[in-house]
Each structure stands twice: as structure tokens, then as C-alpha cells.
Amino acid sequence: MLEVNAINQFYGESHTLWDLDLNVPEGKCTCLMGRNGVGKTTLLQCIMGLLPVKSGDILFRGENLNRQIAEKRATFGIGYVPQGRQIFPLLTVEENLRIGLPVRRQDRKRIPEFIFELFPVLKEMLGRRGGDLSGGQQQQLAIGRALVIDPQLLILDEPTEGIQPNIVQEIGDIILRLNRDIGLTVLLVEQKLPFARKVADRFSILDRGRQVAAGEMDQLNEELIRQYLTV
Question: pTM of this prediction?
């Protein structure tokens, strides 16, 4: 579904991504892994058009996204939950959710009811400002906002960061439900190894801006963990 082919990216004179490849198969949950600062968030921002790539191609269902501005990528069916959630704190929960409605078809300009089935707390707090929610509730809101567009691919950047354990468990269950029951393709950045093993089918490990290992999750062995994931 998503193919990243030999992309290179720079911050000024700093070369951050080096001929990086990534394949996200349709219907699977792929976990992007690696220590802090190896380029995981940078890669997601390149996929979403928030950072430019120097060379290489990013293909979604065969369409080259390099030619598309960031604002257009949601229209292809890509939902994005950035690191740190980035909800709008002064807008209500309902207003945050309605931000994705322009991407939906003209006859479906309403918040899908299944979002409230996944996150009942959001329905209870529709009139509350986003900034007044707890961290876990804000993360649920950020995921719900991404799901409003009915995405074909959901990209999540460290959804468990700074979240209380009971909400981490709930988010894991929701990712599994979306991926395995509904068939939504997921690309996930996650550093918590038990969480990654629970929800993901496949892994890709980055180190110093390069992909150094990839495969089925049961192929993630102790040697790879020790070499690339253990701090």
C-alpha cells in the first residue's frame, strides 16, 4: 500500500535519512522502531509532506505523493496522529473532530458514530475544550480526529507516549480492532516493545537514518533488540 523508495532528507547541511526504503503492506500493522533520534518521526513527516525530501519516491497505492502538497495527502485516505497529539486546545472536542469533515464525501459530512463507539468518553465531552482533557483523553481525541476521514492508512507516532497504563491498554486494543477486525492498514512508531509485539504484524528498524532490519514481528530477535533498540 505504502512504498518509500530510496528517500534522502536533509536538515540544512545535516543528512538525516539515507536512501531509506520502507514497505507497508495493505491490511497489516507495521511498527517503525529504533532509538531516539534515528529518523522515525522525520520519516513520517516526509510521508505526510510536512518535510521535503531531497530525492527518492513515496508511493501510496502507486500514486507518487512527492507531487502532492501536505494538505492534499489526507484526501488520498491517509490519517495521521502526530507525536505529542497536537490537538487544538482551545477548540471543543466536537470542533476538533469536525476538522476532518471537509475530506469526507459531500453526503457524509458528519462525525462517524463508530468513533464514539471506540471512544465513548469523547461523546461525553463533546462540548469540553480539548486542552481541558487528560493526556490519555487527548490521545483518544487525536486518533478519533484522524479516523474522521475514513482513512485507508492510519499513521500513529508514539501513541503511548506519556499515557497512563490503562489508556495504553485501551489504545492497543483499539489498534488491534481497527487493523484485524476492520482491516485498516496501520503504520506505527512505538518504543515500548511489549506494546509493539502486541499490536504489530511487521517491524522495520531504523538506525542513523537507514533501515537496518525488517520482517515479521516474530523475527524480531534478541540480537536485533540488543543492537538497535536497547538504550
Answer: 0.94
